[in-house]
């Protein structure tokens, strides 16, 4: 079990320009940021044009709202939503009673079809503003499930507290971070939803409260998680509460589901089946704690697209960097003469090799090595090789990109869970002589601001 410690930050002196602390203002929301926040502009005293930017979470474009300012920055302000004066026609009722307090979801108040449109627009805007190119972004591929899709959750809890100091009713998330003991939610807010009881009061198990870094909201049920996970979550919560006095530190729990079975053991072996369109489903084994995509319902379409984009390059060989337990390498292997996967995790490489053997895939080999060194000694001819990369959220580092460009493969299929770092890296690909040929987002994370984006690049 991974343990974390929590620290209370002292409240900083409030900057009262251009708005006083908790000053209420009215404004119209014009767009959504890539963080899922509503963005509007207001005119400051003495100005005739509305230029000053104000960020308000849980608002939608076209809405007129009243908001309460809690922080002023050099060129914009942050505010809490007080009330929606004119609602958007796309506003819907959230599927979770904790929406707006729990920081896990940003879009439950937005109709799903509109979520997809905004995510497509946000990718296009990132391409324009970060990579400096205008490029047609394909419509986002929707998740087959809007709720109940997530096959892994990691609830947190802090060390038990003997007391709870509730913030005042007018306080903001920023206030709660300073006035409530670390890791302790405001029990008043939870009791209003009917979710708090004597067992959870002062000892929440859940996720970070919206707008805070340490305050935990008690989450008895997560609507975006699968039903088997929610059923097991009730058992896990009861067990932790029963042992609450034995904990001296906070911890992160794990619940991971595959095929209806849920494990809470970080070292348990998981088996996931994925339909690839190649006859028998691909069966992948990996450790519960290892990285693996958490929306299995969209994986068939997701992996098929990546394989098709790689194969469309005409290359005979495939290199899968950051290959994990072999998801893209093994799903794509039938389209290539030979495939090599590289991963820094020894356990993931062990499972990738076992997965290749178990699925009867003989043309795939796997190497345990730092991705920044994967091209050293590679025997594939660069002009006949396509590379799939699926880096961590922080994107590719310079050492990896330098080696990739020195190898100079025919094409690259870049998979990313953070389009912002992906667009940052795209500028280096363009400078190295690659051309963007396709931009395809996938909604692996409905109800949230997150998405996966696949960029196809040709030399």
Query: What portion of the residues fall into strands of 2 or more residues?
Result: 25-35%
Distance between the amino and carboxyl termini = 45 Å
CATH class of the largest domain: Alpha Beta
Please, what is the average pLDDT? 89
Oligomer: single chain
How does CATH name the architecture of the largest domain?
A: 3-Layer(aba) Sandwich
CATH topology of the largest domain: Rossmann fold
Helix content: 10-25%
Helical stretch tally: 9
Could you tell me the radius of gyration in angstroms? 24 Å
The rough form would be described as: globular
Q: Strand order, biggest sheet?
A: 18-17-16-19-20-22-21
How many domains would you count in the coordinates? 3
Give unreliable regions as ranges: 1-10, 162-199
- Kindly report the name of the CATH homologous superfamily of the largest domain: Vaccinia Virus protein VP39
Give the beta-strand count: 22
Sheet bearing the most strands, described?
A: 7 strands, mixed
Indicate the structural class. alpha+beta
Polypeptide structure, described:
By secondary structure, the protein is an alpha+beta fold. It folds into three domains: 2-7 and 149-263, no CATH class; 24-91, Beta Barrel (OB fold (Dihydrolipoamide Acetyltransferase, E2P)); 117-145 and 290-458, Vaccinia Virus protein VP39 (Rossmann fold). The chain has nine helices and 22 strands. It has helices spanning 112-130, 173-179, 187-193, 227-242, 299-311, 327-332, 346-358, 398-407, 419-431; strands at residues 2-4, 24-32, 38-42, 52-56, 64-72, 76-86, 152-153, 156-157, 205-208, 216-218, 250-252, 255-258, 261-263, 269-274, 282-287, 317-321, 338-343, 364-368, 385-389, 411-416, 435-442, 452-458. It has a seven-stranded mixed β-sheet, sandwiched between helices. The longest helix has 19 residues, at 112-130. The two termini are 45 Å apart. The relative contact order is 0.11. The model is unreliable at 1-10 and 162-199 (pLDDT under 50).
